[in-house]
Amino acid sequence: MKAYYSKAYGNSEASVYGELPEPVSGKGQILVEIKAVSINPVDWKIRQGDARVVSGFRFPRIFGADFAGIVRATGQGVTAFSKGQRVYGSKSILFDRGGSLAELRAVEENKVRLIPEGLSLNEAASLPVAALTALNGLRKCGVRKGTEVLINGGTGGVGHFAVQIAKAYGARVVTTCSKANADLALKLGADETIDHSTDDLFSSGRKFDAIFDAHGHMNAWKVHRLLKRNGAYASTLFIPPPWLAIAMTRILRGKKLMSANMRSHEEDWLELERLFAEGSFRPVIENVFPLEQASDAFDLAMRGGFRGKIIVTV
Asked: Which residues share a beta bridge with 68?
């Protein structure tokens, strides 16, 4: 099969487009004919070796967690899916060398879902990591009707989902983005945009009920100045120490600082699918690359500055 794979940890210089043996569906697995894959920060970070102590040193490795495609075959014991169905899902590539950037991928049945009506293959592939991360971040921040929430990076892969979901929950949404992306942020549902290239946010004296840092690079020691008492901040990146200061901030001021990554419980998928069915959100996809140009997709993802999700088609 054709695949985009890496021969060692590194960036595009360590990866190639070529032939690899086809996988087969084992017990409890589905063999998916991949049609679309979305590129997430976790993909290029693992590819360049950020987690090599955990992911190991066996190569070749195919990267790409999210996928959408068609069921080609089912393994022993699989009863919920059949050949020809449109499916999507996500499987961590931390321990799995057979990722989604290939013509075929064998995936456990519990990592796969039927694609809802009205959702294209590209759109389905864009959802899992980014949309589930946005949903979990907003949940941990307690975003609901009447909440004033600040979303940092409201037109990026995670952020553009967060803006739409927060709005669907009845929140007042303020988001940071570039001036060039302000119109898109407002179209997605933001009530107000703030230019991310200025320090106006921290000097304005404004305070929010919740902050979801979809970009992940806000200064954690400035953030508490933007939160109301009992407010909550969640970042897509790991919150570094000193944890004692974080604990004291929570005890004395009631402010919570925490990390929020992808959560993929059944109720999370159902909530995403409900919101989509209601028309509350739609993926933004402006950059699509064929599999043979997957290096360009990774390079763009690493440079940043793109809007919505990056998709690789197979």
From this structure: 36, 88
In contact, 149 and 171? CB cutoff 8 Å? yes
**Burial status of residue 38 (CB atoms within 10 A of its CB: 0-12, 13-18, 19 or more):** buried
Domains of the chain, first to last: 2-127+283-313 (3.90.180.10), 130-259 (3.40.50.720)
List per-block mean pLDDT (blocks of 10 residues) for the chain, which spans 314 residues: 97 96 96 98 94 91 97 96 98 93 97 97 98 97 97 97 98 96 98 85 85 88 86 85 55 73 95 96 97 98 95 98
What is the pLDDT, as a whole number, of residue 241? 52
Q: pTM for the complete prediction? A: 0.94
Phi, psi of 143 (to 5 degrees): -70, 130
Nearest CA among 41, 67, 39, 43 for reference residue 55: 43
Residues in the chain: 314
Q: Is 61 helix (H, G, I), strand (E, B) or coil?
A: strand
To 10 degrees, the CA torsion angle through 257, 258, 260, 263? -130
**Could you give the CA distance from residue 291 to residue 137 in angstroms, rounded to a whole number?**
31
Asked if residue 221 lies in contact with residue 257, where contact means CB atoms within 8 angstroms, the answer is no
Question: What does the block give as tokens for 206?
Answer: 């404004």
Instruction: Please answer whether residues 209 and 226 qualify as being in contact, where contact means their C-beta atoms are separated by less than 8 angstroms.
Output: no
Question: What local confidence, expressed as pLDDT, does residue 197 receive?
Answer: 81
Pairing of the two strands 172-177 and 104-108: unpaired
Specify the residue for token string 């001036």.
179
Q: How confident is the model at residue 246, as a pLDDT?
A: 58
